[in-house]
């Protein structure tokens, strides 16, 4: 079931600190900029047109390397 759908943005250097969703997977699609998503201590570098899935129960964070715009969805499992 879809629980979240939004367009987000972060300025260069802004971040979302480590957190976990025990009952939800997240999906990000990057519209602009460069970012680093860390999932379970593994860094993933994202840029325009990158699509990435964050599995439930994964410790994850998001850091804007440059200003970023993205769409994200949360899906309850």
Automatic annotation (TrEMBL):
Signal peptide: none annotated. InterPro entries: Cupin_2 (IPR013096), RmlC-like_jellyroll (IPR014710), RmlC_Cupin_sf (IPR011051). Gene3D superfamilies: Jelly Rolls. SUPFAM superfamilies: RmlC-like cupins. It comes from the Bacteria. It holds the Pfam family Cupin_2. Residues 12-64 form the Cupin type-2 domain. This is Cupin domain-containing protein.
